[in-house]
Fold:
Amino acid sequence: MTAALAVSSKAGGFAVLVALVNGPFQPMADLLVPVLSAIAMATILFGNIAALTMRNVKRLMGLSGVSHAGYLLIGVVALFSIPEARNAIVFYLVTYLLAAFSVFGVMAHVSEGGRDDMQPMDAYQNLSRENPFLGGVLALGLASLAGIPPLAGFVGKFLLFYAAFKAQLYGLLGVAVIGVVLSIYYYFGWIREATFRFWKLPRLEEEPSPQPRVLPEIGLVGKITLGGLALLILLLGLYPGPLSSLSQY
Structure:
């Protein structure tokens, strides 16, 4: 439900924005371009900087969603001068949907595994060792959100940044690149918790080690859904297909 609301609200909001920019807002480009550019810059910086030290992954996903809205605004601003930028917006929304649903799907299974429902990042320690399937899906989803090649999120960001470059929005493009660099830090911090095991020296006469987590069995539908999302993230990165037609101009 959280993933559906996170994606559908963005899709609906930006569908309205695209329609307005192509219609009644077009004559007001001189006023709206600097205003929307400033909002996009503030959104990207706020979302990424606030997420840097966040250890609650629910809030981290919320703050990262703010930054992704800022990236989408770049496409809206570029749309004033490049009509084909709508393709970049649509493609980015699709890649964000796939990555968000894959990450939230893993979060739902980890929450059912008996850990704190508040979803601290510590709950994901050694997830890949305990359940390689969930760990792999989580890593692919987060890496796509970060824009790492050859995943779909990289292509989505590339198309948006290319639209900004063609529209000569160099300031926006610079802030967006800074945002991507910042996001890599916290996304890969989460991947590190789930993937890499850090050995610690044993402590004498301390509290006993916690009992190993028992994750719930993933049903066939869950495996097909999460596996399909992960596969689409990889395939759209390797072969963007018709949605990447922005590159024709």
